Amino acid sequence: MKKKVLLKGPLLTRSGYGEQARFALRSLRSREDLFDIFIQPLQWGKTSWSSEMDAERVWIDQTIEKTIAFIQQGGQFDLSLQVTIPNEFQRLAPINIGYTAGIETTKVAHQWIQKANEMDKIIVVSGHSKQVFENTEYQGTNEQTGETVTLRTQTPVEAVGYPVKTFENLPELDLGLSTSFNFLTVAQFGPRKNLLNTIKWFIEEFRNEDVGLVVKSNIAKNCLMDRNRLQADLTNFLRQQGERQCKVFLLHGDMTDAEMHSLYRVPQINAFVSLPHGEGFGLPLFEAAYSGLPVVATGWSGQLDFLVDAEGKEQFYNVAFDLQPVQREVVWDGVIVPDSMWAYAREGSAKEQMRACFENNARRDDYAGQLHERFSEEMMYEQFVSAMETETENEIIL
After folding, report:
1. What is the residue range of 355's domain?
2. Can you give the pTM of this predicted structure?
3. Is residue 174 in a domain?
4. Mind listing the pLDDT tens digit for each residue in 152-165?
5. Which of 90, 228, 291, 370 is at a distance of 20 to 30 A from 161, taking alpha carbons?
């Protein structure tokens, strides 16, 4: 008999967690012989909602209506799959699975461990997230007995990456770039992505050369107000960098998956650069790599799952880093704890690796082919469904 599964997550939003929720949905739909799917959509911060109206969106809307009717009639679910940060995990069914991107730092909050231990299974998106969940410990004292107790994750944790995406016909994009060689970076304009240093170091390295950096970014949404604010902030920052021949281009606005994948294949886009402090997985990095772009990136956290090949060999321009405490302004109660650390890319190494990439100027379609094999849709859907297996009283339950 099919299991009635409630998928709760922000699958209609243009966000990393939205992409994660859509992957979960597609995995479930790959085995509709096992699952009767119900959907409870969530908002995700201030991010925009997707406006695409394709066959999948029609199916989602119909399933949401089905879910509302089912709940109103007193229906009960066999299993919940909750795509969100662990603070928001709840017991909604007899079996509950938390699916989270995890953490970009070296330590998860104690609230995450407490909530994770209320779940029957935790699925994360990378080996980094899995390791941090399993290695984080807190020491406390039992107020009644005075004994020292250790809080750690007791729930099984499994890591499942994302699948590559393929498109039969990609739209052609004309960016009107005037520079002969161009780096691309794709990231939200916030502290974790380290964009200001990325731009500053790029300018200092290529100041008097015919090289460009395309910055696909936003602050929170893809609306005109967001664009105007980001353009003003970026223009002011660039003025402070002095005279230069190299150019920085801002690309802002909502783009479909097909348009984003076209961006990675624009002939004037030659390489991808990303120097974040940490990634749960790093979807833009992944998409760039399996699209054949050479990648310059910080050599730490979730992106190593795909920037290092199956034999353990680095397939990217590895920027050295130092693990240091997170900045005070990014501490987030219950999410990013003040005594956690993340990576700070070294300026000299970042410039050296961008230069090496520029001088090499070669696409990586050979490695892209390997990624298409390792992370095919069929394989990743199968891995995700397998990760949902939960043992309860010596019985494996799907």
Report:
1. 181-374
2. 0.93
3. no
4. 999 999 999 999 99
5. 90
